[in-house]
Amino acid sequence: MTEEAPTTVAFELVSDDELCIAIADVPACPACGTSGLLLVRYQHSWKNQSGDDVVGIRETLLCPQCAAGNRAAAELIAFFAVEERASPENVDVFGEMVAAWVESLRRAHVDEELLTAEYDRWLRGVL
After folding, report:
1. What are phi and psi of 107, to 5 degrees?
2. Phi and psi dihedrals of 114, rounded to 5?
3. How far apart are CA 62 and CA 101, in angstroms?
4. Residue 82 CB-half CA count within 13 A
5. Cα–Cα distance for residue pair 76/64, rounded to 1 Å
6. Cβ distance 62 to 40 under 8 Å?
7. How many CB atoms lie within 10 A of CB 100?
8. pLDDT at 85
């Protein structure tokens, strides 16, 4: 790869434990516009209406505004406030915090009642 002709590297996740972490060229949060701190891609599964597992890939942006309510995210946000970036000296701690944050994302579930209420408001033109 040269500077004149950069090559895009595509990562293929091969296990549930594997994470692809981007800490450079992270986009702004689509919800609030705040600069993202990192972007992580990981395997995620859910149950379909038949009760079968559906495996896919999920990508989540760490936004210091929107994610602050998640305890594991708050630890990562604090890490970036102090360290500014991962380095060889703190890469193990950084990796553990990212893994804990992703695990908290995997455990999160959709609030079906809230989703239904928002959908009803959207149908009525209120949302």
Report:
1. -80, -15
2. -65, -40
3. 9
4. 8
5. 9
6. yes
7. 15
8. 75
Q: Tell me what pLDDT residue 16 has.
A: 58
43-64, pLDDT tens digit by residue? Answer: 888 888 899 999 889 999 999 9
Strand order in the sheet with 53-62: 19-22, 38-47, 53-62
Q: Which residue has the tokens 């994470």?
A: 19
38-47 and 19-22 beta bridge pairing = antiparallel
**What residues of the chain score a pLDDT lower than 50?**
1-14
* pLDDT at site 86: 75
Q: Which residue has the tokens 């149950």?
A: 47
Residues contacting 60, CB < 8 A, separation 6+? 39, 40, 42, 102, 105
Report the chain's C-alpha Rg in angstroms. 17
Q: Is the pTM of this model over 0.85?
A: no
Inter-helix orientation angle 91-107/71-83, to 10° = 150
Question: Strands, DSSP E only, in the chain?
Answer: 19-22, 38-47, 53-62
Q: Is the Cα dihedral 66, 69, 75, 78 positive or negative?
A: positive
